[in-house]
Amino acid sequence: MSTVIVVRDTTATLADALAEAVTRLADQHTRDDNALLTAWQSVKAALNQSALTNRQRELVLLDLMGLRRSQIAEMMHVTPATLTTYWKAIYQRYDLHGIDARAALHRRLFPQVTARSLLNLLSD
To answer: For residue 14, what are the CA distances in angstroms to 5, 7, 107?
Structure first.
């Protein structure tokens, strides 16, 4: 099955469009426990309540989805060096340091959701 995402709101970010698309897919999901819908609603709510800019939210969401750095840079129309600048600003905002900073950020923003659990739910 393939999914086409149509963004009609020109002010919407890619992250907003992806979150909306996954939420709609989850609505159509046949699982009785609605785990996918709940997980994506949690992610969307956490991002909306975060202190991140729209571009930073977009980066975090794409990273949470498991995309590679080069894929994220291409989708966001920036260079990998720009992504590094975005990550530094995010880490500074949340006072995160070290090699596990990204994982710590995901745990802080999405304590009940992991990338692996989201991807597993999507593939079910």
So the answer is: 10, 9, 22
User: How many helices and strands, by DSSP H and E, does the chain display?
Assistant: 7, 0
Q: Measure the CA–CA gap between 92 and 10, rounded to whole angstroms.
A: 30
Domain layout of the chain by residue ranges:
14-123
Q: With both helix axes pointing from N to C terminus, report the angle between 14-28 and 35-49 in degrees, rounded to the nearest 10.
A: 160
Q: Which two tokens stand for residue 23?
A: 């939420």
Write the CB contacts of 17 (distance below 8 Å, at least 6 apart in sequence).
5, 7
pTM: 0.67
Structure confidence at residue 87 as a pLDDT band (50, 70, 90): very high
CB 29 within 8 A of CB 118: no
Which residue's entry shows tokens 């949470």? 64
Taking Cα atoms as reference points, which of 67, 68, 46, 66 lies closest to residue 57?
A: 46
Q: Residue 22's CB: how many other CB atoms inside 10 A?
A: 25
Residue in 108, 6, 12 with CA at minimum distance from that of residue 60: 108
Question: Quick one: the chain helix, strand, coil %, rounded to 5?
Answer: 65, 0, 35
